[in-house]
Amino acid sequence: MFNQEGSTARRFIYSAVFWLIVPVTYGLLLALHLWKPDLIFPWLNPLHLSFGRLRPMHVNTVAFGWLSMAQLGAMFYIVPRLTGARLYSERLGNWTVIIWNIAILLGNITLALGLTQGREYAEFIWPIDIGVMLLLAMAGYNLFKTVGGRREKQLYVSLWYFLGTFTWFPVIYFIGNVMWVTPFNPPPGAPWGGALTGVNDAIVNWFYGHNVVGLWFTTLGIGAMYYLVPKLTGNPLYSHRLSLIGFWTIAFTYIWTGTHHLVWGPVPRWTQMLAITFSVMMIIPVWTVVWNFVKTMEGKWNLILDNIPLRFLALGSITYFLVCLQGPLQSLRSVSLTTHFTNWVPGHAHLALLATFSYVAFAAIYEFLPKLVGRPLYSKALMDWHFWLVFIGFLFFFSGFTVGGLVQGISWNSQVPFLDVVKSIEPWSLARAMGAALMFTGLYLFGYNVLRTARSVKPQQQSQATPMPAVAGGSLGGAQ
Amino acid sequence: MKTMQIVVIGGLALTLIGILFTVALPSLTIQPPPSAAAIDWNKAPRQVVKGREVYVREGCFYCHSQQVRFNDETDEALTPDQSLGRASHEGDYVHDAPALLGTERQGPDLRWEGDRQPSDLWHYRHLWNPQLTSAGSIMPGFSYLFLAGSTDIQPRAAPDAEALVAYLLALKTNEAPKPGAVAGGLTLDTPLPVGNAQTGQALFSSLGCAACHSLKPEEKIVGPSLSGIGKTALTRIKAPDYRGKATVAETYIKESILDPSAYIVPGFPDAMLKDYALKLNAQQLADSITFLQTQ
Question: Scanning A404, B5, B243, B286, which has its CA 20 to 30 A from the CA of B60?
Answer without folding.
Answer: A404
